[in-house]
Amino acid sequence: MRYVYTSFLAVVLGVSTSAQPPVPGPRFEVASVKPSTPNLLAGDCKPPTCSTAFYRTPPGRFIATRMSVEEYVSVAYSMPANRVIGPDWAKTERYDIEATHGLPDSDRPGLLAMLQRLLQERFSLRVHTEQRPMPVFLLKKAREDGKLGPRLVSIANCDVPRTIVPDYVGCSVLGTSGPTTRLGRGDWKRLALSGRLEPSIDRPVIDETGLSGLFELRLDWSDDNPPAADRPSLFTALREQLGLKLEAAERPMDVLVIDTVERPTPN
To answer: Is it the case that residue 190 has pLDDT exceeding 70?
Structure first.
């Protein structure tokens, strides 16, 4: 069984988008869409790195809890939520979806196509993609001499003795041991640290470090304001622990624009 939390939504397989009417395609066998009940745990959760909204995909089912329309669109169309442009209510109102299907577990594109069709039929969703200039952060080396921090270490292969991350972290996997800890070991591009930082700053992050090869890394920070006594802010942690920095900039980015969307039809 797979759990995917919207705060850490990583990359899902892409499905192309353009302005479109509903098209014939795979449909969930049965689907229920309901407004979410009040979240009694909200007081213990500190967005953006902690979220009580999530979806899971046990065999033959799609089950989502407390997700906004924007988050559903983000999943269905493989676009980070911070690049989905739509009405305010689509960001704040939350819905639960339970659906069944007959797809094999490996058919991720088919599942996303079903979710797209459900959104088109039940939410009257219409979308298109375009490029817009957006504020972003550039992930760069912090030092002019290019020296990296003590928690970003070049390694020869994944079998060398570990010095920073525990045994359970696999090769070329960027894992977590909490909302504000990232543990990685393996190929830099596959670790994709830039994408895993986006939920914490709600802005696209573009990797301009120029790094390649195999690395071991550990990043610990605090989202509290002011930061917790034992952990620095994300910006400080990147500089001190990894020798990297986030630099504000503006770049043209692909975005998904919601042309029309309505509150869902009753079950």
So the answer is: yes
- What would the pLDDT profile of 12-31 be if each residue is shown by its tens digit? 334 444 445 555 678 999 99
Mean pLDDT calculated for residue range 175-198: 90
Single-letter residue type at 28: F
3-state SS, one letter per residue, for the chain: CCEEEHHHCCCCCCCCCCCCCCCCCCCCCEEEEEECCCCCCHHHCCCCCCCCCEEECCCCEEEEEEEEHHHHHHHHCCCCHHHEECCCHHHHCEEEEEEECCCCCCCHHHHHHHHHHHHHHHCCCEEEEEEEEEEEEEEEECCCCCCCCCCEEECCCCCCCCCCCCCCCCCCEEECCCCCEEEEEEEHHHHCHHHHHHHHHCCCEEECCCCCCEEEEEEECCCCCCCCCCCCCHHHHHHHHHCEEEEEEEEEEEEEEEEECCCCCCC
Instruction: Residue 122: name the closest of 251, 230, 265, 246 by CA.
Output: 265
> pTM for the full model?
0.72
